[in-house]
Design brief:
Strand content: 5-15%
Distance between the termini: 164 Å
Number of helices: 14
Strand order of the largest sheet: 1-2-5-8-9
Structural class: alpha+beta
Radius of gyration: 47 Å
Helix content: 40-55%
Oligomer: single chain
Number of strands: 14
Shape: flat
C-alpha cells in the first residue's frame, strides 16, 4: 500500500506540475495576447493621432493659404489706394549730372605671366655647375680634357637656352604691347563716348534751361517714365509744350477698372474643404476706380511741377483717358475721364498728403467724369492735337507748307472773316459783325442744338504777343451784355496763366495759335502762322 500510495503521490505531483505549467503557459499566452492587443491599440491610437495631426496640419496649411490670398489682396488694394501718397516721399527732379558718365575706364590688366619678364639665363649659372678638377685629379690623365669638354657643353647649353629665352621674351613683350595697344584703343573709344555723351547732356541741360520745347518734353518724359506704378498700369502718355505760355500738355492713359480685384475676401470653409471667394461690391469698385483716376491725375501734375528745376512750366494741362470697349457696340473707344488745367503757383499751395482727392480736383476746376468706371466721357479742356507743335511753326516751317497762307499777313477784318468761316464749317450758325460799333464782338454764332445750344460770342485776336487776362475779362463782360451762353477767344499767339485761371470756371473757351491751325486743318482750311 505504501508503494501504491507513493506512486499516486508522484502522479498527483506530476499532474499538479503539469497543471501549473499549463497555467503558466496560458498566463504567458494571455500576457502576450494582452500586450499584442495593447500594442495594436497603441499603434491604432498612434495612427489616429497622426491622422489628426496631419489633418490639423492640412487645415492649418489651408488657413495659411487663405491668409496669404487675403494679405496679397489687401496689399494690392492698399497699393491702388496710395497711388498719390507713394510719390510724395520721392524727389521727382532729375539731376543732369546723373545723366553724365562719371565712371573711370577700367585699369590695364594682364596676367602675371605676361607682365613679369622671364628670368634671363646667366652664363655663370651654367659654368658654376661644373666642378673644376683638383690638384690631385689633374694628375689623372684626361681629367683636364674632360673638364674643358664639360665647360664647352655648358656654354653651348647656355647659348641655346639664351636663344630660346630671347624668343619667348620677345613673344611676351610683343603680346604685352598688343594688349596695351588694344587697351589704349578701347580706352580712347570709351573716353570719346564719355566726352560725346557729356557734351550731349550739357547741350540738353542748356536747351532745357532755355525752355526749348524738345528738351522740356524729353526731360519730363524721363520724369514720368521713372515714376513707379503697379505692373498692370500702362504708363503710356504723350507730351506737348508751349514755350510762350510755359504750358505742358499731358495726355495720359489710365488702366481699366479691371485692375481692381473683383474679390473682397477669401474664406476657408473647413467642412467643405473649400476656399470661397466673396465678390467685391460694384459700388466699391466704382469708388476705388474713381480714386485711382484722381490719384494718377494729382500725382502726375505733382511730379512734373516738383521736377521743374528750370522753372519752365507755369501751367499743366492733364487729360486722362482709357482704352476700352463700348459695351453697347463692342467697338474700341477712348473716352477722356478727366481734364484739368492747373497753375503751378496754385498747385504748390496744396498739401497733397491731406487733401481729399475728388474735392481737390473740383477746387482746381477739373472736368471729371461723374461715372468713370462706366466710361462716361468728358470733353478735354484742350485737345492734345490742338497743341501739337506741328501746327505752330516759327523759323523751322516745313517746306511743304511754304505755299500756305500766313495768318499774320491777313488784315484784322480778313482774320475775323476766316474765324467766322471756321465756326460755320464746325456747325454753328455764325455771322460776322460789322467792323465798327460791334460792342467788342467779332462774330456772333448760334449753337442750334436743343437744351445745350444757345448764343455764342466770338472774338478774334491776330496778336504777336501773349494774350493777357484783360482780353478774357473783356470777353466775359461782352458775354454778359449780350446774354450769351458761351464765349470763345481765338488768337494767333498764346495765353498767359492768368487768362486760363480767370476762364477756368466760366463758359469761356480759349483757342491759341496751335489750336486754331488744328481746327482749320480739320475743317479743310490749311494755313500757317509765321512771326517776323
Amino acid at each position: 500500500m505504501a508503494r501504491k500510495s507513493g506512486l499516486s503521490g508522484l502522479m498527483a505531483s506530476i499532474a499538479r506540475e503539469n497543471a501549473r505549467q499549463a497555467r503558466l503557459r496560458e498566463s504567458e499566452r494571455k500576457r502576450i495576447e494582452r500586450e499584442s492587443i495593447k500594442a495594436a491599440r497603441e499603434y491604432q491610437r498612434g495612427l489616429i493621432q497622426a491622422e489628426k495631426e496631419a489633418k490639423i496640419r492640412y487645415i492649418e496649411s489651408r488657413i495659411e493659404e487663405t491668409d496669404y490670398l487675403n494679405n496679397d489682396l489687401n496689399e494690392r488694394i492698399a497699393e491702388l489706394k496710395c497711388i498719390l501718397e507713394h510719390t510724395l516721399q520721392i524727389d521727382d527732379s532729375i539731376s543732369f549730372s546723373s545723366l553724365r558718365i562719371s565712371e573711370k575706364f577700367k585699369g590695364f590688366y594682364a596676367s602675371e605671366g605676361i607682365t613679369t619678364p622671364l628670368p634671363k639665363p646667366q652664363l655663370e649659372d651654367y659654368t658654376n655647375r661644373i666642378e673644376q678638377p683638383s690638384l690631385f685629379s689633374k694628375l689623372i690623365p684626361g681629367s683636364e680634357k674632360r673638364y674643358q669638354k664639360a665647360l664647352i657643353s655648358a656654354k653651348q647649353q647656355y647659348e641655346s637656352d639664351f636663344v630660346q629665352y630671347e624668343l619667348k621674351e620677345n613673344e611676351r613683350i610683343s603680346y604685352l604691347d598688343q594688349l596695351k595697344t588694344e587697351y589704349d584703343e578701347e580706352k580712347s573709344r570709351y573716353e570719346l563716348k564719355v566726352k560725346e555723351r557729356n557734351l550731349e547732356v550739357d547741350q540738353f541741360e542748356e536747351e532745357y534751361q532755355n525752355g526749348e520745347s524738345d528738351a522740356v518734353i524729353a526731360y519730363n518724359t524721363m520724369v514720368l517714365e521713372r515714376s513707379e506704378y503697379p505692373d498692370e498700369f500702362p504708363q503710356i502718355f504723350r507730351l506737348a509744350y508751349l514755350p510762350d505760355s510755359k504750358e505742358l500738355v499731358i495726355d495720359y492713359e489710365f488702366p481699366n477698372k479691371e485692375i481692381i480685384p473683383a474679390i473682397v475676401e477669401y474664406k476657408y470653409i473647413k467642412t467643405k474643404d473649400e476656399i470661397n471667394e466673396k465678390p467685391r461690391k460694384i459700388q466699391e469698385i466704382k469708388e476705388i476706380y474713381a480714386d485711382i483716376v484722381a490719384g494718377v491725375t494729382l500725382r502726375t501734375i505733382h511730379e512734373v511741377f516738383e521736377a521743374d528745376q528750370g522753372n519752365v512750366i507755369q501751367l499743366v494741362v492733364f487729360n486722362g483717358y482709357v482704352n476700352s470697349v463700348d459695351p453697347a457696340t463692342g467697338k474700341d473707344i477712348t473716352p477722356y475721364l478727366i481734364s484739368t488745367r492747373v497753375q503751378k503757383e496754385k498747385f504748390e499751395e496744396l498739401d497733397l498728403s491731406r487733401v481729399e482727392k475728388s474735392v481737390c480736383l473740383r477746387n482746381l476746376g477739373a472736368q471729371v467724369s461723374p461715372r468713370p468706371a462706366e466710361l462716361q466721357a468728358v470733353k478735354p479742356i484742350v485737345e492734345f492735337n490742338m497743341v501739337d507743335k506741328r501746327f505752330v511753326d516759327h523759323e523751322d516751317m516745313l517746306e511743304s507748307l511754304n505755299s500756305l497762307p500766313n495768318l499774320m499777313e491777313l488784315n484784322p477784318y480778313e482774320f475775323e472773316r476766316l474765324v467766322t468761316d471756321l465756326f460755320s464749317r464746325m456747325g454753328l450758325d455764325a455771322k460776322l459783325t460789322r467792323s465798327s460799333k460791334d460792342g467788342g464782338v467779332d462774330c456772333v454764332a448760334f449753337d442750334t442744338r436743343p437744351i445745350v445750344g444757345g448764343k455764342v460770342v466770338i472774338q478774334a485776336k491776330r496778336y504777336k504777343n501773349t494774350v493777357g487776362v484783360s482780353a478774357v475779362r473783356d470777353l466775359y463782360g461782352t458775354m454778359l451784355n449780350e446774354g450769351a451762353n458761351k464765349g470763345i477767344l481765338v488768337t494767333t499767339k498764346s495765353y498767359g496763366p492768368d487768362a486760363y485761371e480767370f476762364s477756368k470756371d466760366k463758359p469761356i473757351e480759349l483757342i491759341d495759335g496751335g489750336g486754331l491751325l488744328y481746327l482749320l486743318e480739320q475743317n479743310g482750311i490749311k494755313a500757317r502762322i509765321l512771326f517776323e
